[in-house]
Automatic annotation (TrEMBL):
Organism whose genome encodes this protein: Didymodactylos carnosus
Coiled coil, from the record: none
Domain of life: Eukaryota
Pfam family, one: LRR_6
Record has Repeat as a keyword: yes
UniProt keywords, alphabetically: GTPase activation, Leucine-rich repeat, Repeat
One GO term describing the cellular component: perinuclear region of cytoplasm
InterPro entries: Leu-rich_rpt, LRR_dom_sf, RanGap
Molecular-function GO term, any one: small GTPase binding
Name of the protein in its database record: Uncharacterized protein
A Gene Ontology BP annotation from the UniProt entry: nucleocytoplasmic transport
Length: 83
């Protein structure tokens, strides 16, 4: 599995945290689409933590969620440390 589309699935912070946990060890997923969900800043922070270690994800779509400026800043910081 290299691409996962989860658009409009009402994924909340808890769902985003579960996805983030999987991303920490996943070595095949390159594209993750999470638009049109209910991911909050807490969910975005969990995803950001996963991005710090994930080495395969190259495309992440988070449009039209509720991540807030704080969540976006956390993701941006994570992307600066991602290798």
């Amino acid at each position: 599995l290299t691409t996962l589309h989860l658009l409009g699935n009402q994924i909340s912070a808890d769902g985003a945290k579960a996805i983030a946990t999987a991303l920490m060890t996943n070595q095949t997923l390159t594209t993750l689409q999470l638009e049109y969900n209910q991911i909050s800043a807490d969910g975005a922070k969990a995803i950001a933590t996963a991005l710090m270690t994930n080495q395969t994800l190259t495309t992440l779509h988070l449009g039209l969620n509720e991540i807030s400026a704080d969540g976006a800043e956390t993701i941006a910081t994570a992307l600066m440390t991602n290798q």
